[in-house]
């Protein structure tokens, strides 16, 4: 899919052509959230820069604040201190430039709408019916759900519901895609083909993708950079550039010595909280 006129926002076409312009900038971000009568520190001293067209994987043990960090980027959680910029502007709430795929796909979809009408929801009123149909059709093709447009989400498997949510994000052709464990409910074959479809879309559009996963191999396979969050409160303890050639290949890429090297490095950091 190409970037259409739907989400111009702050990240304009000229920014896109300037490869590597800064999309997100986080400076000394702390997040505390209320637990009972007091605030608990969830994230501490997060410094990060994400550039246009990057695919960044976030991994780390449960409860270290990965989802909270994604919600900060989405504009759904305000940091207690520090700065979060999207396209050079402070993030004060959800932006049209950045679309989020939530972990809980079951509550993200509207049960009374068909698959096609869930996916097409963000386009309603923004373009002709024919254009909406084309976009929905293409988004469903990308996630491997062609032919399921008239079904209801609650009749689909968890993995299919998750893919409907991904299609609904892709359909607006966002500049930034934020995804919280988006492949968690998928079987290995479906997961592999969705990985490759997403990377094709990203290569064609120059989208910036930030995603959370528990799967080290998946993080290495998809990402330009993998960031590890660790500790309580969580902080970034590692940030590795994968330096694997694109386009990637399910078999050949995973056979490369560099793939094994990065995977080993990440396994160590996940286990010990730092390089051993
Ligand atoms: N809205 C909230 N209010 C209070 N505490 C929260 C809230 N959301 C998450 N937490 C706590 O913050 C910590 C990090 O949660 P989360 O960001 O979901 O971690 P992860 O995604 O890495 O598993 C957890 O201990 C969780 O209980
Ligand atoms: Mg989480």
What's the CATH class of the domain at 17-96 and 212-271, please?
A: Alpha Beta
Distance between the termini: 43 Å
User: How many DSSP-defined strands?
Assistant: 10
> Major sheet: size, sense and barrel closure?
6 strands, mixed
How much of the sequence lies in strands comes to 15-25%
Q: What is the residue-averaged pLDDT?
A: 92
CATH superfamily of the domain at 17-96 and 212-271: P-loop containing nucleotide triphosphate hydrolases
Low-confidence stretches are: 1-18
- SSE pattern, N- to C-terminal: HEEEHEEEHHHHEHEHEEHH
Structural class: alpha/beta
CATH topological fold name of the domain at 17-96 and 212-271: Rossmann fold
Q: Strand order within the widest sheet?
A: 6-7-8-3-9-10
Bound molecules: adenosine-5'-diphosphate, magnesium ion
Rg, alpha carbons: 18 Å
CATH arch. level architecture of the domain at 17-96 and 212-271: 3-Layer(aba) Sandwich
Number of helices: 10
Q: Care to describe what's here?
A:
The protein has a domain at about 15-95 and about 210-270: P-loop containing nucleotide triphosphate hydrolases (Rossmann fold), CATH 3.40.50.300. The chain is built from 10 helices and 10 strands. The chain has helices at about 15, 65-75, 105-110, 115-120, 130-140, 160-170, 190-205, 215-220, 250-255, 255-270, and strands spanning about 20-35, 40-50, 55-60, 80-85, 90, 100, 175-180, 210, 225-230, 235-240. It has a 6-stranded mixed sheet with strand order 6-7-8-3-9-10, with helices on both faces. Strands 2-1-4-5 form a 4-stranded antiparallel sheet, covered by helices on one side. The site of magnesium ion has 2 residues, from helix 2.
